[in-house]
Design goal:
3 copies of one chain form a homotrimer. By secondary structure, chain A is mainly α. Chain A has helices at residues 8-38, 44-50, 60-89, 93-115, 119-148, and strands at residues 40-41, 53-54. Chain A has a two-stranded parallel sheet. In chain A, strand 1 (40-41), helix 2 (44-50) and strand 2 (53-54) form a beta-alpha-beta unit. In chain A, helix 1 packs parallel to helix 4, helix 3 packs antiparallel against helix 4 and helix 4 runs antiparallel to helix 5 (119-148). Chains in contact: A-B, A-C, B-C. The interface between A and B is medium-sized, with 33 and 33 residues.
Chain lengths: 149, 149, 149
């Protein structure tokens, strides 16, 4: 193990990434399952095979799961980038744990709110995760520029 | 090179990532090329520039390429996360090679099946890649929790 | 810090990733903000809460921001993969800096062109970033295969 991997914030980062990845996998499978349940597919060959209709736009049920999945990935990509960079530049450990844990809680709340049609909670959860990522970005940029230039 | 990078499963992981990235790049370019070939664009300025129509929903041809591209990225993100974590926590080397190679084969089969309208093969390939990722997730969570808490 | 993290191309890579992540975060928030400004939402509960209509397809304004966001992430994922692999296999430092800086410039130009409806500039920027990524992919594949097999 190198010296990044023995830090406590590394373990927290790993747990956040794995939970968010599992959530994304479950949302993706749920979208496909839901399409099958109501018989509305995006591909003609699926409708021919399993019985049902091919539609251009997803029905509201799978459409909601799809958007929750998409929003999870849209946030997981910059968080992955910023978290790795945060660990790599060796920024503050305690603040890192606060960022990572806060991100996980905000994203679990976002998915809960999306699937349960609670728009205010969804907006607040999205905004919280968004601010955390922006804080991480500024934090690491300041540190990288300070260390290198 | 640190000690992660000299392990054999690291080389396999790298090859899988690079091939899947190349596949994603090719699918993205093919989508754009296909839109141009049939003259159906998502942006009005493209239709004005190159001749053709601006459409709200992609035509079936580029739409299929787009969905194969999207599905590739939807799976590449959690696989990237879980594979890096798998290497970082130092989980079993042989099982790692089986996971990574199995993922690559399942994802190549998925894209083949999508582009050739073979829905049963596509579903089985998707499910195989999905189960492999879930197995990786459980594997690393068990190991991280065992090592740290 | 391990030996990857002290190389100059690592600092450039980090800056590129952080800037592209910030850009993605801003585009995502701008899309949501734009939906609110014109009162056209993708979820019925948002329309009920904030006043406005629920639409199946995004309006042209947020739709454009959404596509610029999506294209940013579609390119950030393979670039992240290929850049990390490039650093991990220890490929040429100067060429790496050229790849990374060229990618950043091409992607900033792409987003500028997308939001300002300049299709030729957008196509050229997309193609430039695409070729850089393909060059990185071939570069690392040749090196990994040469080193390992």
């Amino acid at each position: 193990m190198n010296e990044v991997m023995v830090r406590p914030e590394f373990a927290v980062f790993v747990v956040v990434l794995v939970i968010e990845s599992i959530k994304a996998l479950l949302l993706g499978a749920a979208t496909a399952f839901n399409r099958g349940k109501i018989g509305k597919y995006l591909n003609q060959e699926d409708a021919d095979w399993l019985g049902g209709d091919a539609v251009v736009n997803d029905d509201p049920g799978p459409g909601r799961l799809f958007r929750a999945h998409r929003n999870t990935l849209e946030n997981l990509v910059p968080f992955l980038v910023l978290g790795m960079v945060y660990l790599a530049v060796g920024a503050n450990s305690t603040i890192g744990i606060v960022y990572f844990a806060g991100f996980l809680l905000s994203r679990l709340a976002h998915t809960y709110a999306y699937l349960n049609r609670r728009p205010m909670m969804r907006r607040n959860a999205y905004t919280t995760g968004w601010i955390i990522q922006l804080a991480m970005a500024i934090h690491v940029l300041v540190q990288v520029i300070g260390d290198n230039f």
